[in-house]
């Protein structure tokens, strides 16, 4: 049963923070393409379709372990990934239905933001190209793959937000974990990378299958 959710009001404005890749932007194909380019460059194993299907049922920590990427190389890989993704931004499409959902949330008084492992420049470039930039109050890049909770905590302090009125939305298990560690509501979405089974195993507060369900949940 879905608990009662109170929409934003003049007294208490709810804040909805999104992950970007796989949650707002349909970037999976571009991510695999870049991942295989970097695998060749860094001497790592390529991402096959069989491997991708298996990874979609694993946690982010399990994927990093199975990929056999030394932790000291992750910052460099992430930096290169962001550079390569910048070239793909013009070709990326929004998740079907997400534009309408974002507009509905904004019209209902929510403050919108993004916390992503992608770069702020890449995210803003996508939002601007799709005429969505005016809907967002902030975009913040997480410097670490598994460190989004630290960014979320900083934002809560900076914007003087009450955790009970903050939702973090993402398509990966690490997004659910970040929300739990921060003490905000976790909304996991099934239209991105991780499978519903993997997401459900991390106990999000809500598990949604399409953007219309997001509107129904937060704008009753």
Walk me through this protein's architecture.
This protein has two domains: 15-26 and 94-218, Rossmann fold; 28-90. The protein is globular, with a radius of gyration of 17 Å. The protein has helices spanning 28-42, 49-55, 60-66, 74-88, 98-107, 120-129, 148-158, 173-182, 196-200, 211-218, and strands spanning 15-18, 25-26, 93-94, 111-116, 138-141, 166-170, 185-189, 206-208. The protein has 220 residues and is an alpha/beta fold. The strands form two sheets. It has a six-stranded parallel beta sheet, with helices on both faces.
CATH T-level topology of the largest domain: Rossmann fold
Helical content stands at: 40-55%
The tally of structural domains comes to: 2
Shape designation: globular
CATH architecture of the largest domain: 3-Layer(aba) Sandwich
The largest sheet has its strands arranged as 5-4-1-6-7-8
Class per helix and strand makeup: alpha/beta
C-alpha termini separation: 15 Å
Strand content: 5-15%
- Please identify the top-level CATH class of the largest domain: Alpha Beta
Number of helices: 10
How is the secondary structure organized here?
Elements: E1 15-18, E2 25-26, H1 28-42, H2 49-55, H3 60-66, H4 74-88, E3 93-94, H5 98-107, E4 111-116, H6 120-129, E5 138-141, H7 148-158, E6 166-170, H8 173-182, E7 185-189, H9 196-200, E8 206-208, H10 211-218
Parallel strand pairs: 1-4, 1-6, 4-5, 6-7, 7-8
Antiparallel strand pairs: 2-3
